[in-house]
TrEMBL record:
GO terms for biological process: tRNA modification. CDD domains: RHOD_YceA. This is tRNA uridine(34) hydroxylase. The gene is trhO. Belongs to the TrhO family. Its EC number is 1.14.-.-. GO terms for molecular function: oxidoreductase activity, acting on paired donors, with incorporation or reduction of molecular oxygen. Catalyzes oxygen-dependent 5-hydroxyuridine (ho5U) modification at position 34 in tRNAs, the first step in 5-carboxymethoxyuridine (cmo5U) biosynthesis. May be part of an alternate pathway, which is able to bypass cmo5U biogenesis in a subset of tRNAs under aerobic conditions. PANTHER family: TRNA URIDINE(34) HYDROXYLASE, UPF0176 PROTEIN YCEA. It catalyses: uridine(34) in tRNA + AH2 + O2 = 5-hydroxyuridine(34) in tRNA + A + H2O. It comes from Neolewinella lacunae.
Amino acid sequence: MARRRQLRNLLNEEQLRARLSAEMEPRVTFSFYRYAQIADPQAFRDDCYAAWESLGVLGRVYIAHEGINGQVSVPSSNFPAYRDALYAVDFMDGMRLNIAIEADAPSFLKLKIKVRPKIVADGLNDATFDVTKRGRHLSAPEVNALLEQEGTIVVDMRNHYESEVGYFEGAIRPDIDNFRDLLPAVEEMLTDHREANIVMYCTGGIRCEKASAYYLHRGFPNVAMVDGGIIDYARQCAALGIESKYLGKNFVFDERRGERITEHIVSHCHQCGTPTDRQIDCANVACHLLFVQCPTCAAEYNDCCSTECRDFHALPTEEKAQQRTERVFNGQKYGKAMRASLLEKGVARLE
């Protein structure tokens, strides 16, 4: 009888962390995406998991009828074999692999591959929109040259908590926390600049690929995107010895939380206002707010966003379980209003 394929992780977090800590070999962390037509995403997902798990691949991958989007890490000795496995699939042959700036830092604990309606949730329901007809790709020198031209508009197509810690000089950075709402909001912002040169950027290019195609579809003729996103732009700048117009850190969706691109600190502690770009989740898991906190406030508030969360976090487990359903904390998201509120409380020492 044929052995049944294991198609999901069976270890708990403690076991996963122990397994990763025991590894002696450095890992390569990178991202990739490709828009394509996948007839049976679930079957493709299962085949990928079975093949990749044996190579020690860890990470987060989304598969949909419209393509694949992945952020992964792999033991360095297995990187060539994994790259060959990806390129062996027709629609992924030659696909860009965006190697992380801090490529050997711990990033993922397990391999998670999910089937989703879309690889980038966009809220669009337009059968005439073709995502493959995207804007012009710009190299790092081309980006810098265009940014120096008068009238060029630069748009950050990431969530606000990503752009808070790093961005291109002069970029429009909407205070929005999902791509679905970002598309119509940016279109409205650009209504009076339809003929301008518009440069869009995101982490690795996948969101701009779709956004640039969408705005071309909506009648904006001069839309371009940073090829390979912030990750490849930074790599090109370093390789060519040219100035980086991107300042600060590049937010990443893994345990590293961010990669430093330049030494600029462009954000501030939400509690005391000190310049810092240290982003953490509130240690109170009932809150889990993602926010910016300096080391001094981290020590004072035990990695929590407020005295309320700090005190709750310090309670015995049983007491926290009893109170959790009755307590309301900040929640998982913040915007400008939340940041201003935390800073106002922070100046007053959150009492």
